[in-house]
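Biotin carboxylation domain-containing protein structure dump, as promised
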Amino acid sequence: RQWEYQTFRVRRLMNLVVLATPEDIEANAEYIRLASEFVRVPGNDIKNTYANVELIANVAKRCQVDAVWPGCGLEAVSARLPQLLKEMGILYMGQPAEVLDNIGIKANGLILAQTLGVPTVPWSGSGLVMPAEHGLRARALAALLEAAAVT
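structure tokens r here:
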């Protein structure tokens, strides 16, 4: 909202629709207060909320949005979301599907960085590294992703 006002000198020019879990609603999360509208989604399991690209695409269609900004979360690393939105005629304001396909999910990059000793921001997979017998592959093992609560 601050960017919106600084750029256009108008408040609430854009209609911002956000997904909100019961936990975020209960916590009175700032992103919900700043939104024009929120859509309640299931909580407790990220696979059923922010990582559920079908849910995101269906909410976008139902709310008749022009564009979806994926932020930096799990939805930002799924090639399926930009594909679904394109089919629906909705602009995806993130990396193209082709780029996401080549990079894989964000956790892969974090695990690779940790394996190489590159400092990372604390996350649910902090400290996980790829076993030496598997070499330094760009795609992390499914067991590591599960350990990081990403699957």
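Residues 2-101 form a domain with the Rossmann fold fold (CATH 3.40.50.20).
lmk if u need the other ones
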